[in-house]
Recover the amino acids of this structure.
């Protein structure tokens, strides 16, 4: 098994952390009889010779020994060794052709291993066959034979996914694999296998899907769940692992099956919504918990009529299953106003469980609990009384102000308490910025002009720590301007014109005094010399000056022509506001719209102000409104906390733009 291993000059080879002289020990440990030693060795292989998917010269030297390990039946965990080989040989964007060639050279071994006594080996070998055996017809025939002979459910699922991979990888040979998938998607095959086949058909051969796909998938899901629950209750089947699974239920296989189907359906949002409805009304809370996360991916990534799905998410809150409730609440908190159909359920939970109003990480300050946060973000005024109670308490959550701001003027009754909190912030404290920013956000939202003295105190007495001082100064200036109190802060603002807050202070001074002679030189300096954020801000502030900033046009035009895309966008909008000539502006906005989707919100707001002059970009706005995909959508369904409201705001602005033409 390790013949020749000592003849390799491992010390001269490299892996992620330097010399590969430790690799022979890891390879030998993969054959250990000690499970812990094998696991440590496998982790070490992924962490060194295959760190983050990379391939090194030492990785190539390992391939023959990994093949030998996989072929020896006395070696445990050979399935994991095969998975490592598959990962090493996978085609990468870096074009590691030598790694693929090395694994392909041993591909004949995968044919033998496809019939190995170990189910884990058979499962891993099936996928390896399709990836590395350069004989598609032969690979398909091996898969066909294995399907007929296989009795292990997990291996059958792996074979089904491998058939789907074959269809996508070898379209010219796909018909036979598609026929096998279509066969597996029907009775008498068990429900889990049929779901897997439907998912693979949806990915590679949607024309072979049944017309009643969604009802069929929902029925199969419920049949599978009933079968799984019956098996879990069999007499004498309780083991330690089984007990843990019963107390902390999960179903990764079921989650994978349904997620595959959702991914394959893509922009067929009506079908996905109907599928979610079936999942979220299952009698099995584990199915519903899986569905909650799939609902999150749909809502984050796709536009559409989501009222029914949101209402079903709200229905999950009335449950004894903590994981299900917590999952549903966390998704609802991402939706902001789109969570309104679940507001009654959120309010019921908030009213029944005051213990969930706050959440405290170990050794950390309390934060607002997800149920109350979601209710406030939805804009429901029933969040005000519990927020008021927390605000009046001795340890109000540090982030409370940010969420209170979502309620806008409806939170005005809390203005006195906000002022009181602002006045108690200890200015010399390093925590001043963390405490002040949420409260200032709330003061702006409720429009509390009586808070001006407290805001001025913060601006004039910000702590010495640079980061804290910067945060407080920016937030305080914005708040004073929003409250119309910039004239009262004029001396402080003038003093800030020579600091990193110059652009923010200049904008507030323009609001207070309207004197371009004071602010124009400052903004031009920031446009030329500031950091990227300040350059964008300076451009926006220059746009606010309108024709009074004509002297800035040459610099703004230069920025619009050659700067990074976000700066180009801000500068182009400013050029329009100052010069009212759409000619040089519209091409910049069109290019930025396509190049950087996150610029679409600012561009759409600019187009609103342009009115009929923006007509040449009507096609962009109309296409955005017709697009099913959110402009904030990210791969894998993940996203930022404000992605959904940001996209919804873009849609509202686009509709407004169309009314201006």
């Amino acid at each position: 098994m390790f013949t020749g291993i000592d003849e390799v000059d491992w010390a001269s080879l490299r892996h992620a952390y330097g010399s590969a002289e430790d690799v022979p020990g890891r390879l030998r440990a993969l054959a250990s009889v000690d499970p812990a030693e094998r696991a440590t060795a496998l982790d070490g292989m992924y962490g060194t010779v295959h760190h983050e998917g990379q391939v090194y010269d030492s990785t190539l030297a390992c391939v023959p020994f990994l093949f030998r390990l996989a072929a020896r039946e006395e070696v445990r965990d050979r399935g994991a060794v095969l998975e490592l080989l598959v990962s090493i040989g996978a085609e990468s964007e870096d074009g590691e052709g030598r790694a693929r060639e090395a694994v392909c050279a041993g591909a004949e071994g995968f044919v033998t291993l496809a019939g190995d006594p170990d189910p884990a080996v058979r499962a891993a070998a099936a996928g390896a066959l399709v990836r590395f055996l350069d004989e598609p017809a032969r690979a398909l025939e091996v898969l066909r034979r294995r399907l007929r002979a296989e009795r292990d459910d997990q291996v059958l699922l792996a074979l089904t996914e491998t058939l789907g991979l074959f269809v996508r990888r070898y379209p010219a040979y796909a018909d036979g694999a598609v026929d096998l998938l279509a066969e597996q998607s029907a009775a008498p095959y068990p429900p889990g296998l049929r779901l897997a086949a439907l998912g693979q058909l949806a990915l590679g051969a949607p024309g072979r899907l049944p017309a009643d796909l969604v009802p069929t998938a929902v029925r199969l899901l419920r049949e599978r769940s009933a079968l799984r629950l019956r098996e879990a209750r069999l007499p004498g089947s309780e083991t330690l692992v089984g007990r843990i699974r019963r107390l902390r239920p999960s179903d990764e296989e079921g989650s994978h099956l349904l997620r595959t189907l959702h991914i394959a359906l893509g922009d067929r949002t009506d079908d996905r919504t109907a599928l979610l409805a079936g999942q979220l009304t299952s009698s099995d809370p584990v199915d519903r918990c899986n569905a909650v996360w799939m609902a999150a991916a749909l809502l984050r990534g796709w536009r559409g009529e989501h009222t029914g799905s949101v209402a079903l998410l709200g229905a999950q809150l009335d449950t004894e299953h903590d994981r299900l409730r917590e999952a549903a609440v966390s998704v609802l908190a991402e939706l902001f106003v789109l969570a309104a159909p679940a507001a009654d359920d959120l309010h019921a939970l908030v009213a029944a469980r005051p213990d969930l109003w706050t959440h405290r990480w170990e050794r950390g300050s309390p934060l607002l609990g997800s149920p109350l946060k979601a209710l406030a973000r939805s804009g429901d005024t029933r969040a005000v009384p519990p927020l008021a109670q927390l605000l009046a308490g001795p340890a109000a959550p540090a982030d409370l102000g940010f969420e209170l701001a979502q309620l806008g003027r409806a939170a005005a009754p809390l203005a006195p308490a906000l002022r009181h909190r602002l006045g108690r912030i200890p200015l010399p404290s390093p925590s001043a910025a963390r405490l002040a920013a949420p409260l200032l956000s709330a003061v702006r939202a409720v429009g509390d002009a009586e808070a001006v003295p407290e805001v001025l105190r913060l601006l004039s007495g910000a702590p010495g720590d640079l980061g804290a001082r910067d945060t407080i100064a920016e937030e305080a200036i914005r708040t004073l301007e929003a409250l119309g109190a910039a004239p009262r802060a004029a001396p402080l603002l003038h003093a800030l014109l020579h600091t990193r807050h110059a652009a923010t202070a200049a904008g507030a001074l323009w609001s207070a005094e309207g004197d371009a002679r004071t602010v124009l030189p400052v903004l031009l300096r920031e446009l030329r010399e500031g950091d990227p954020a300040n350059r964008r801000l300076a451009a926006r502030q220059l746009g606010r000056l309108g024709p009074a900033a004509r002297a800035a046009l040459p610099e703004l035009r230069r920025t619009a022509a050659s700067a990074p895309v976000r700066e180009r966008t801000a500068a182009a909008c400013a050029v329009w506001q100052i010069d009212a000539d759409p000619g040089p502006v519209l091409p910049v906005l069109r290019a930025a719209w396509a190049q950087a989707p996150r610029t679409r919100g600012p561009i759409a707001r600019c187009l609103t102000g342009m009115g009929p002059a923006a007509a040449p970009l009507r096609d962009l706005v109309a296409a955005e409104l017709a697009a099913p995909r959110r402009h904030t959508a990210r791969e894998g369904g993940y996203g930022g906390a404000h992605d959904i409201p940001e996209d919804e705001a873009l849609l509202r602005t686009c509709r407004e733009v169309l009314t201006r033409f």
Observations:
- Residues 582-661 form one domain.
